[in-house]
Amino acid sequence: MDAVVVSWSYRPSAPSDASWIAELRAVVMRPDLERLGRFDPVRVRQRFLDAFEPQLTRVIVVEGVDIGTIAVRPAAGAVWIEHFYQAPEWHGRGVGGAVLGATLAEARDDASPAPYRLNVLQGSGARRLYERHGFVVESEDEVDVFMKRVPVS
To answer: Crossing angle for the helix pair 18-35 and 41-51, nearest 10 degrees?
Structure first.
């Protein structure tokens, strides 16, 4: 079944978004973290709250509803895609691929040769999305897969 891409937009995130995003993260990551024996309901939320940078994060909006987030963080020698979460009821509907594609294209507007980097949990279905967008495995451990995408010139 092909995903049907719906109309979506971004809005800037604000500090007041932290709680619902932390909750979304817990919901989205729970199945993979449980499978890996790593789910801790407090830690999964606190790790987000400790790392949240509203100025780097955008909220994904569909039909007037906040359904997810994506953050783009420039770093020395890389551009990190982080906090890319989408409400489970929106998985498989083309929104994630559209958002990731648009984010990668937009981040490239600065013509920086720095690669994109991200990490995904071992066994996560999200890895297939990243591979479809040109990410390859750079390294991995028992919990995380670190991926890289070199900009296309």
So the answer is: 130
Please enumerate in sequence order all residues whose Cβ is within 8 A of that of 131, keeping only pairs 6 or more positions apart, or say none.
none
Q: How far, in Å, CA of 153 to CA of 141, rounded?
A: 31
- Non-local (6+) Cβ contacts of 53 within 8 A are 71, 73
CA distance 20 to 83: 13
**Cα radius of gyration (the chain):** 15
- Taking only the tens of pLDDT, the chain with its 153 residues reads 445 567 999 999 999 999 999 999 999 999 999 999 999 999 999 999 999 999 999 999 999 999 999 999 999 889 999 999 999 999 988 999 999 999 988 855 555 678 999 999 999 999 999 999 999 999 999 999 999 997 665
For the chain, the straight-line distance linking the first and the last C-alpha, in angstroms and rounded, comes to: 32
